[in-house]
Amino acid sequence: MNGNVICNTLYFLQKCQLLLSQMEGKQEWINEINELQKELELQKINHPLYEKCLIFITDKIIHPFLQDLDTLFNCQDVVREMKKYELNFNYVIKRLSLIREFIPNVVKVPLDDLFCKPQTDQEWIQLNRYIEYVNLDDPLSLSKQFDQFYDYIALGAAYCTLGSKYSNPLISLIVQNVGGAVMLVTKQTARNIKIKEITNPSLSFVKGLWSIQNNSTFFKNFMKLTNCKVKSHLKIHVPFLFEEHTIQISS
């Protein structure tokens, strides 16, 4: 494994710990990062899939987290600005906790697995003959579409949470529908509610989100109006890699 990969990951984690140590009440976050660091050092072996995972985790989670911390500490009032970041930071720590749990399973993947082999391997070369890559849209347009989709998820999460504090079903329904309409405008509030709920989800929240279209006429009609509609079908043919042969054995 490229030693720079694990070194970069550990270095970024240590910097995160150092910055968090300058804030009060964040010892739990520091402990979680420290446990992840220990697990990464423990699993530091020459495994291609492990290296790929480290690169992804570092680029997509750890380094952006460090950049946000740097931005925060460049503010004049760190304590006040921390309130804007706390939900997202708590979500990142939760993701790092999950990563620490699954990392030991990554190194158990057999080295002869297809995804452990380089693209120059003969098996990949043979397989690529039957693979056609289709660009669905330009990257910027796709990014905007994903953002819109995530906003729908955030709206659903906020809708399930609204009214849950009221025992009266009628009041709960009114709060949900009125609040849901308000969330269409205040999208950032909906996003914050989503992050908070998915960081430590409850069973009632998961059930509500799962059956939201069945239980909410408002949300069901809203989804019909806003979701994109399929106007055409694209048939995808996947050819067989091997031909079938039937052997008849005469007695």
Topology of this structure?
Blueprint: H1 3-20, H2 27-42, H3 48-73, H4 78-106, H5 122-128, H6 139-161, H7 169-183, H8 187-199, H9 203-210, H10 212-215, H11 217-226
Helix pairs in contact: 1-2, 1-3, 2-4, 3-4, 4-8, 6-7, 6-8
Description:
By secondary structure, the chain is an all-alpha fold. It contains eleven helices and no strands. The protein has two domains: 3-128; 139-226, no CATH class. Helix content is 67%, strand content 0%. Helix 1 (3-20) runs parallel beside helix 3 (48-73) and helix 4 packs across helix 8 (187-199). It starts with a helix and ends in a 25-residue tail after the last helix. One of its GO terms (biological process) is triglyceride catabolic process. GO terms for molecular function: sterol ester esterase activity; triacylglycerol lipase activity.
Summarize the structure.
This protein is mainly alpha-helical and 251 residues long. It has helices spanning 3-20, 27-42, 48-73, 78-106, 122-128, 139-161, 169-183, 187-199, 203-210, 212-215, 217-226. Helix 6 (139-161) runs antiparallel to helix 7 (169-183).
